[in-house]
From TrEMBL:
This is Sporulation inhibitor KapD. One of its GO terms (molecular function) is nucleic acid binding. The keyword ATP-binding does not apply. The keyword Cell membrane does not apply. Keywords: Exonuclease, Hydrolase, Nuclease. SUPFAM superfamilies: Ribonuclease H-like. CDD domains: ERI-1_3'hExo_like (cd06133).
């Protein structure tokens, strides 16, 4: 019996400074998590929570407006230590691949773990779906999550910059890209019409 495999579609939202001029020592901290666990092509579990930042606990007005988030929501969230422990539990379930849109989520998680002196919770592969999407479609620049799903003729799940909605949207794009990859890897056999140049055939019989 083959071992079960889990895909973890993960999205974080972060703190941000009020302006481009960052306060001394500022770094982005995770303040919201959205996670979708998928096994055997089905959603196995989902989780979302606000997370209390450690270093800069007071959110800037820019951050609150951009993410449509309140100070109270974050103050009542789980601690970063609890978040890492929870992610570790998902990682322990079975061999896992973490899928994110872009590389920022993993970068910030690693840096936040370093700052909090906590071990990084994931042991498996990480896939940056935005980079895969860029390479697959031969694009010059990376496409935003919501724009990518619209390019497929769909709408994203829920609201942009809501971590769980963005995690589900990432999962939806993943399914579409994987389907396209399989289609290209196994092209359908040509139809009779494609094998025979009908115009040449008509010319032959017209003579």
């Amino acid at each position: 019996m083959s071992e079960e495999h889990q895909y973890l579609f993960l999205d974080f939202e972060f703190t941000m400074p009020e302006s481009k001029t960052k306060p001394s020592g500022f770094f982005p901290e995770i303040i919201e998590v959205g996670l979708v666990s998928v096994m055997n092509d089905e959603v196995h579990d989902q989780f979302s929570a606000y997370v209390k930042p450690n270093k800069f606990p007071i959110l800037t007005d820019r951050c609150k407006v951009f993410l449509n988030i309140t100070q109270e929501q974050v103050d009542e969230g789980i601690s970063f230590t609890e978040l890492v422990a929870l992610l570790k539990e998902y990682d322990r379930l079975c061999p896992s691949t973490v899928v994110t849109w872009g590389n920022m989520d993993m970068k910030v998680l690693k840096h936040n773990c370093l700052q909090a002196n906590l071990p990084f919770p994931f042991t498996g592969e990480h896939r940056d779906l935005a980079m895969e999407y860029k390479l697959f479609f031969g694009k010059q620049n990376q496409t935003g999550l919501r724009k990518a799903v619209q390019e497929y003729g769909n709408e994203g799940v829920g609201k942009p910059h809501c971590a769980l909605d963005d995690a589900f949207t990432t999962y939806n794009i993943f399914k579409l890209v994987e389907k396209d990859k399989k289609y290209l890897a196994k092209p359908k056999p040509p139809t009779i019409g494609e094998r025979i140049d009908v115009s040449q055939l008509l010319k032959k019989f017209a003579l």
